[in-house]
């Protein structure tokens, strides 16, 4: 059982249907071997830890060890892909790249349960809202909408999410500006429960097989087209 939740181009809904990189990766994992059958199961950014602890999921795609996983009985595969957090604001509010120099100078919109470098990767909403001028919303779409409505001065969004939006919305570049550099860049891997029927070593071998057939990087690029400044 492979956990997924709405994030970047990893897992999202298109016309009401679950889609994204994680689903394509699972399909290729099932195709490349016959010892295990991988099935996706939806969770949420806040519920993922409980679902892993109770055994509802055996692994979770795609995660970073900095995201509050210490002491939770999981190990990580080798990195699968890289993602980036970028800062966005309404274009008519941005006089120049210096606007993004210190995100903490602005009111911020982020996603509940996500981990941000500028916040020390903490995910406790009470701590975050006590220490920062931040609104924690349900998903990245709500964050972008909050910025466009001027409910928040800066939104923190994945580069993958913004790459989708630039393809879907023709005038997105006229409506929002991005910071001059990524706020954070990080590898994403599979978090695998130590009680899972598959070991990290076995899963890593499957990843190696996919890499040998060049089935990971082109797949990520299909979903995640470059938008970094």
Task: Describe it.
Helix content is 30%, strand content 24%. With 229 residues, the protein is of the alpha/beta class. The model has no long low-confidence stretch (mean pLDDT 94). The strands form 2 sheets. Strands 1, 4, 5, 6, 7, 8, 9, 10, 11 and 12 form a 10-stranded mixed sheet that branches. It has a two-stranded antiparallel ribbon with strand order 2-3. The longest helix has 13 residues, at 200-212. The chain is built from 8 helices and 12 strands.
Give short descriptive properties of this protein.
8 helices, 229 residues, globular, alpha/beta, two-stranded antiparallel sheet, single chain
* Helix share, percent: 25-40%
Question: What letter string, H or E per element, gives the SSE order?
Answer: EEEHEHEEEEHEHEHHEEHH
- Helices, by number, come to 8
What summary fits the major beta sheet?
Answer: 10 strands, mixed
Mean pLDDT: 94
Task: Indicate the overall shape.
Answer: globular
Short characterization:
The protein has 229 residues and is α/β, with parallel strands linked by helices.
Describe the SSE topology.
Elements: E1 2-4, E2 12-14, E3 17-19, H1 21-32, E4 40-42, H2 48-53, E5 59-63, E6 74-76, E7 81-90, E8 108-111, H3 125-131, E9 134-137, H4 140-148, E10 154-158, H5 159-168, H6 172-175, E11 176-178, E12 184-193, H7 200-212, H8 217-223
């Amino acid at each position: 059982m492979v956990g997924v939740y709405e994030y970047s181009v990893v897992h999202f809904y298109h016309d009401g249907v679950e889609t994204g990189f994680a689903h394509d990766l699972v399909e290729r994992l099932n195709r490349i071997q016959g010892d295990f059958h991988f099935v996706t199961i939806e969770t949420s950014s806040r519920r993922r830890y409980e679902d892993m602890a109770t055994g509802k999921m055996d692994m979770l795609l795609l995660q970073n060890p900095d995201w509050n996983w210490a002491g939770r009985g999981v190990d990580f595969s080798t990195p699968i892909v890289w993602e980036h957090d970028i800062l966005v604001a309404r274009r008519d509010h941005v006089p120049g790249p210096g606007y993004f120099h210190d995100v903490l100078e602005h009111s911020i919109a982020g996603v509940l349960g996500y981990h941000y470098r500028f916040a020390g990767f903490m995910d406790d909403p009470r701590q975050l809202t006590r220490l920062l001028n931040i609104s924690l919303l349900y998903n990245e779409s709500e964050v972008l909408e909050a910025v466009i409505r001027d409910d928040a001065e800066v939104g923190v969004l994945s580069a993958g999410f913004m790459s989708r939006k630039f393809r879907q919305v023709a005038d997105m570049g006229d409506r929002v500006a991005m910071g001059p550099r990524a706020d954070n860049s990080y590898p994403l891997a599979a978090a695998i429960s130590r009680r899972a029927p598959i070991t990290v070593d076995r899963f890593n071998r499957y990843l190696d097989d996919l890499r040998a057939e060049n089935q990971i990087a082109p797949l990520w690029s299909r979903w995640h087209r470059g938008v970094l400044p």
